[in-house]
Protein 1
Amino acid sequence: MKTTGANLLRILLERQGIHTLPGIPGGAILPFYDALHGSAIRHVLARHEQGAGFIAQGMARVTGRAAACLATSGPGATNLLTAIADARLDSVPLVAITGQVSQSLIGTDAFQEVDTYGLTLPITKHNFLVRSAAELLDVVPLAFQLAESGRPGPVAIDVPKDVQNATIEIDALPEPGRRQPLAPCPDEPIDALAHLLAHAQRPVLYLGGGVISSDASALARALAHRASAPIVSTLMALGAIPPEDPLFMGMLGMHGTQGTNFLLEEADLVLAIGARFDDRATGKVAEFCPRATIAHIDIDPAEIGKIKTAFLGLVGDAADILRRLLDILPPQTRPAWRARAAELRATYPLQHPPRSEDPLHPVNLCRFLGEQLPADAIITTDVGQHQMWVAQAYPFRQPRTLLTSGGLGTMGFGLPAAIGAALAAPGRRVACVSGDGSILMNIQELATLAEENLPVAVLIFNNTHLGLVRQQQELFYRQRYEASRFASSPDFAAIARGFGVRGERIDPMGDPLEQISAALAGEGPCVIDIPIHTTANVYPMVPPGAANRQMLIAQPEPAHA
Amino acid sequence: MRHTLSVLVENKFGVLARVSGMFSGRGFNIDSLNVAPTHDPALSRITAVLNGDDTALDMVTKQLRKLINVVEVVDFHAGEAVQRELLLTRVKATSKTRSEIMQICDIFRAKIVNVAPDAVIIEITGDEGKLTPFLKLLEPFGILEIARTGLLALKRDNASA
């Protein structure tokens, strides 16, 4: 078969099962766009390459399979970088394809030339600069294999224009790249872990995003019940364990509940599963779990001992290790420890006024959304206070229902990720909870949303501030507020309508929850602008650098607030 | 503590940037780094000398093993490997001092490879225990320039094996 590099790339992507491809065209990627003409691949035209990257991320985070995105050279590629770096920190399988100037022009400061290979090198799992059309036969399957195998992550493929235009004769097409099986964890550490769990008095399971990516949620829950070990969760593991589970203690760390962090102070064994001891989870590392022996299961050997020395490290797929552990672990009842966990949970609930008094308190609002939306609804967030309120109060009941930028903390993630989620999970309800700061960072994707007409509700928790910045300035910078208040606040409902999306502004004087409910019941995409208190803070909060036991808790609200 | 890491890598585009970028990106300090092809043209060997405790070294090794183009990582403990460095130095040498410099070179089995009226270039091979005192002895004459390869290392074979 005689074909062009561009056409070959399209065929290879089709064989990888790519049927939705977000991107933006430009000069150096035009031969590939020409090859897309008439293809079965549905191209989704984003309005900014970062949007395209996060749409692909939304698809990948919902399905667990690698998604691809497209951009041209130069600014197209640099605009993608944030979405790639974000995928790296949250271990999301992503294949980013960029056009590049022709090889004869590389290094000449040509129009829209940038060293995409050099720029993506430190933020990808691996990256390629394709030197000939024939190389595509190896590079494309390998890119998908690498993105999905082991610890998932982003892979970048930079394709010069002359490679896309080159003619090539091919005899056979390669097999699509697939997730490669891992070397199984040996038996000895699993036996040792069973022994540790059997002899601990106060064990705790500390779940991270790896539990979700290895589909080990049910196994982790079974282990908790077998071992009578309470469960704490990172932001990335929310959804793995339903909140009504009696052993579930919620999120740990900077904005975790007090009882959860106190429980870890008392634990004598902490088993981390697919978690990476991020500073937002551990607080001051030296004082994290001070009485506990640490055991750590991770797919990435470099995570074992990276932050906190593990007494026992197990490298492998969490689901496989947990299954084999459950085969040999005898049941433990530990009534006193279970009772202690229940007591801590009951003693330290999230502090918030009752709904009847303050329906728009963010905690009440998140719980209300949890009642309004089905259990399989997908919630994306942006980054800031609203993200933490959602994490604290929204009842995530299933894995892969919370899509959030955990590691990089990228404002602007929510809307395009919600579009990707809706594209990848047709028929499911998708809501993006955002803030009035974050939504402006990728608001242009409302045009994409209108065009695709997807069932995405964007709920803006509007406090006319960069709320988490304002909160930190209040608490840690002597209330010297600098650049955290928006003097001009746009009319988001009108902006939405301008993009062709239904827009509603909630009037706090009427019945706000009824208005939200009515807005959510409408057809198609919508933006719901919800005014919340301008000075509400996320509590509890561990001051940066402090130990997790040193949480600040809500002060009683002054009467005029 | 000083560690010598020998890293076998695929001879692919950008591999040096990948390895050195990992070192800088994760805050590991390298004392020296040498890269050159092996007898197999598909493979290159990177020899890196690092300062750090055992935990830091463990992390470097694990991060290196994660890089796709890295084939093998070996950490040489003291005495396990033959370690050598090639050093070239240009030293001020007048007709008065030249013979004294030649004597020092003899003692250290160094070679004078270039002679000019006011300077010589000397070539010497060895480990740090040899090169450091050699340079110290040359210092009073006036060292003008130094170029060195960084440490190279290969595992010793056990004579009884």
Protein 2
Amino acid sequence: MKKVLVFFFVVTMFVIISAIGSTQSNPVTITHWYWADNPKYSATMQEMAADFNATNGKNITVVAEEYPWDGGAYSETLFRVVMGGGGPDTSTFKLTSTPLFTANNLLANLDSFIEDWEDKDEIEESLYETMRQASGTDGIYLMPWNTQVLYVYYRPSMFKEVGVSVPKTYNEFLESCKKLTRDTNGDGLIDVYGFGMRGAKGGQEPWGSFIWARGGNFTDFTSAGAVAGMQDFIDLYKNGYVPPTATMDGFQEIIANFKSGKTAMTVHHIGSSPGMVETFGDDVDAFPFPGDVGQWTSMGDTENVMLESCENKDAAFEWLSYLATGKGQETWCRVTGNVPVSKTVQQLPVFQNSKFMKVSIEAAPVAGIFPILDTTTEWISTIWPNTVAAALMGKITAAEAMQELQKGLWEE
Amino acid sequence: MQRKKIDLTPYLLISPALIIFLAVVFLPAINAILMSFQSYDLRRPSRIGFIGLDNYIAIFNDSLFWQSLWKTFLWVTFGVGFQFILGFVLALLLHKKFFGRGFVRSVSLIPWVTPGVLIGLMWRWIYDGNYGVLNDILLKFGIIQEKIPFLAQQATAFPSVILTIIWQGIPFFALMILAGLQGIPTELYDAADVDGANGFQKLVRITIPMLKNTIYVSTLLRIIWVANSVDVIFNMTGGGPAYSTQTLSVYVFNKGNALNLGYASTMSIILTLILLVVAILYFRNIFSSEEE
């Protein structure tokens, strides 16, 4: 009898211990790739991953691995790695890369996750619709994270020195570029250029504003308006209102030139605002890129995706939702100054009181994206910078450049 | 009749290297050849398939290919040419006895042991049109009156990247030629001295002929390496501005990066064939001179 009792005791204990054990989830590790524009953002992402790991309560550990954005080469690196059978479970992502990834079935469909998600309504339906359009299907493969609207940064003190006011029209903007270009120390050399032009990869976004201002668009680069916008862009370079390095200037260069006082205006989004304020204090402000016949500015977007190869999709979605509407959303947008996608986070005072956020919101109605085609990534990384550089240097005319750009994006 | 026993030892010894060679060189090369006959653009996976010679025809009609090929010719000719001349001079200097020779020999190797990516980034900042140290030096010495955007204009971008590859490759030639110089018997120079030969005569009649094979092999290796080099140009200019620094290797890399692997493979095959012709002509020259 005693043996039977001992046997039942052991079995009971085993069942109890097993039951307790089953309430604790198995440990899951999610590898997340991201890019960061500066060391502060890198540290922030690591802190967010640590915070998520400590608070998710589901035994999920996110390992955040950083890779350089490199003017968009990040997306190509991610693609090659995932095609090769490796890569992360989740990654920061751009809309323009969606067709490439969905065409090769590399992204996990998020429809069912979002349908069952309690925070689903925290994000505007229009954003989900944009995600659907980008995929070229009825499905959602990208989780919205934050947006950035491009606008013009300027130095109020420089405007005051030359007696120009904030441009309200496109022609006033071109005129400001001219007036702000000057020799400040009388040595006969230009010290300050009116505009910090981006001629390297990524420069197509500010360039797009010139094209639309003259009545052009991205469907037909060869239209008279588009060619006129291109001519304005060329004239800024030829007349010396932008640094002579413009043909090769990328993100780092235009920001460095603006921060060093070499340029009086440059185009970027709110993500640069903390660094600008750190450098200039109150002597930096912003205005929407003005229009003429038309008006357009680029809506930068950043999403997160779950790769189809991810083995723990529920855990990965927990992390994606933390970034989209959880504490990760607030932390990242607060530090980077990006526009949040979460309605609740948007209402926080820190976002409502920012002058750069106000300009972003002011420019938002004319903000858009480049056509998302299977040619877009090559067009952005190779065709646009080289064709525009050739036009800037006078090797080809504005009309010839626009024909090349039309062919590269639409006819390949 | 006794059957001849085959000794397997040499085959066993060579097999690891052979297997690795087959896996990482031969199979990818075969794959590249096959890809060159296919539409293999990962942006358009539905179109992947055999297209015969279409890639080759497209490339021969591609003006950018011919421009890149011409740039490759200039890149190799000036790059390797000046590397050889300056490397030769450096080797002759390092062959002389002087105080601190060991230190100078070690320091002179720095460009060669520095990774190409780092060299590209380093020189990109040296040449920078706004903050570059080269502009500062030239301005301070009064050589220029205003800063030159070396990498941002066509006239200076390509010479600038060529200068960088020259800087990188000088130590290689210096090292190879120095090793060759140390193998030349001193008796030859002693005999020349007795005959009253001057320095130039000794260089032309003894040093260069004795170094002939070293020069041939090292030049051939360097031609192949420089023609295939991507890292320096890519990190300095990415092939721009306006494709002015785009060699064939950089074009292949850019096309591969754009995921058009069929087109990129076809250009790689063409580049390989060109280099193969150069190598065959080179070796034929070496062997024919040896036979003489």
Protein 3
Amino acid sequence: MAGASALLLLTALDARLRSHAAAGAIAERSGLVAALELTDLALFCEARYTRHPSQADLHSAFQDHPMALEHFPSGSLVPAPSPGRGLP
Amino acid sequence: MSGFIQRQRYLIDYTLAALARRPGKQVGLLLVYTLIVFLLASVMLFTQSLRREAALVLASSPEIILQRLVAGRHDLMPADYLDRIGRIRGVSAMRGRLWGYFYDPTTRANYTLMVPPQSSPQQGALAPGEIQIGAGIARTRGLEVGDVLSLRSARGEPYGFRISAILPQETELVSSDLMLLSERDFRGFFAIPDDRVTDIVLTVPNPREVRKVAEKLSLALPDTRPILREEILRTYDAVFGWRQGLVFVLLGGSVLAFVIFAWDRASGLSGEERREIGILKSVGWETGDVLRMKFWEGAILSLTAFLLGYLLAYAHVFYLSAGLFEPVLKGWSVLYPDFRPVPFVDGLQVATLFFFTVFPYTVATIVPIWRAAITDPDAVMR
């Protein structure tokens, strides 16, 4: 157990070291976002409303037709927009 | 004080020796316990890492993006909207963006085609007929610098693009499916007239003026919808918060089953354990000592499960790129970026996980032991 506790403390150290080491890569990603005026992460590229959730229509998951069911697993995990979202 | 610590050490020694005498009894519980902590900690660490990364990276996204809506759907924006907006106090620059999607039937993947802004270093490096692509596209199509990528344009004609550069692999999280091309090629490929742009980007240096500017835009151009940077950040915070919550709900059933199992194990005393308590009391142990010994037994078991589960989850997420979650996250996405999550660990979240996994089990072991420990040793042994 002492070994596991020591490893737990080491994970905190590892997290700090690795996040410091990743600062360059994050700065590079951030620089590209600023240079190209990007708005979203390229995590889910299967549909336009999962590729750019922040730019999608408010009810984009059902935009194809009123009875359309959700096609993609990641789309079904995006929450319904809150009433406050949209126009400021 | 040192006497108290010494006493606890003896009790822990005795507890460890007792656990070592019958290891098989606790192994099953420890395995299930560790698995539950592993799953909960993996979800927590992974979503926290993505949430933090999104917040850091997207903090550089444009302050305001103005979209045009026609019949409730996003539509191309006339370039003269830039003139109609005119001069708004607080806006230091505005320009039209050109971007869109292209479905590639060869790979069954969607690419994001984009014209880089004039001020970007990518714009200067792009000659007509040349493109820069994200590492995801290069990997999926097996392309290298100098190769020609042929795509079918909106008019049905084949369009050949020479690849002048591949965007750095470190930026894949935001550029995996990107294809950067010149304005002339973009308009020619999608048959978009010169007087249309996809949306408008506005630079507002003072964050306190952003909402006021958005209000003015909504009044000046009622058929548009401003999207603020803070909304983009909030969207991602909500997406990952939701995702984490949803996985926790899905795990809820198994967590509940474990709680019942652990409660049953912790609160029910076997005849052997009752006999052990009786013997300990008859050889002079006080009720408090028996309680402390059983407290240490519960604490050692739950703490070991927490430590093992957390360490395995840390290795799984940050050294194996959360391989178990990848199929769910990928979904239908062909161009899923190849990235390794950065370990941004939230101490408060770890403390919460610790409290909810270690504390209840330890407490659950105390009550039945107390009941057995306050009865007469002779009655307990019988």
